[in-house]
Each structure stands twice: as C-alpha cells, then as structure tokens.
Amino acid sequence: MARPHESVADMYDLRADEYNQEMDSTLQAYTPMLDEAIPMIPAGKGTIVDLGCGTGHMLSYLADRVPSHHSLIGVDISPRMIELARARLPETAILEICDVIRAAELDALRPAAAALLVCAFTLHFFSADECKQAISSWSQLLGKGGVLLLLFWSGEDDSYAFGPATTCYNHSLSTVMNACQCAEAPLQVVSQETKVDDEMGMEFATVYAMKA
Prior knowledge:
By secondary structure, the protein is an alpha/beta fold.
C-alpha cells in the first residue's frame, strides 16, 4: 500500500499538465503575497526556496523580481511537476524531487542560508503533527533574518477526503502561528491575514514569519 504522500505524488503526476495550464491564469491571485514578502528578504546572499513548487510558476515569478545573486531552489514530490518546472526554469533554478516534509535532508539546502522559504498550499496534505514537524524542520533552513511565507487553506483543524486515497487537513491560523513560534529555530510571526479564494470558495490564510 502506498504511503499517503506517495499517493499525492501519483495524483499530481496525473494532473500536472492540467495544473500547469490552470496556474497560468490563477497565479495572479497569489502574487500580492509574494510581492509583500520580497521587501522582507534580508540583504546579502541567500537562497530563495519554493517548497511544493509544482510547475514552477511562483519560483519563476520570484526569479524575475529578486536580485540575481539569490540562487533559486524548488522542491516537489511529483516527478512530472518537476519536469515541467525544469522546462519553465531551464538553467535558472535547482529543482529537486522530494517530499517537502523531508526537504531539510537535501544537500542543495545546506548550509542553512535560505533568505526566503515559500510554501503555498501544501500544508493541507499534512496532519497537525506533521505540520508542526515540517515548520520546525524548515525553520532550521533559514539564515538570520530569513522569511518563511506560508499560504494554506484555513479552518478549524478539521480533515476531509481528497480523492479516494488521500486525507487533507485544514489548519487554523493559531495552530500554524504556534508551530512557527515553537519551532526548533523559533520564528517571529510578523504578519498574517485570512482571505477567501472566490474561485475555490474556500478561506485561506497567509503567514509571514521571520528568523531572528
């Protein structure tokens, strides 16, 4: 039997091309959050990392707007998503196939010197405990003053079926903020908000957290 995150990889492998086309039009709904994060990036070198990068749309958007001395890294569990991301970002970014909850194991992310970590709409594949584990692990990848940007479907820490073999989880804003503050390398939440995605009809939250 496939582990839950492996079933997610299979699902996105199957719909990666459709997802790629959808993101051409839906990316603009989330670029304001990226625009708000860019001025928070600390001066100097540091990697820009997209955890759950999909087909590379957000990473490509950031590549056009951050100083060129920042290296770009994308991580996704779906091989087909990474294949499409490599086509979008040839010779621009390092793109790795990996479950983002284990991203800290990647050589490409060592030493811990990330200036910006983005994780957009991936936390719903993690239980509350996995969410805390992931954020704690990611906090150790950030350099001093580095920023973690989280976008996630919000709710009251409830779960729901997503396809025949996948359980997804809504996370409350307080749960995610607490995970940031209690991380292995504690993160200070500097901004947060909730909005409704009109197309999806679902509420999502945005959290910006900084490593001291």
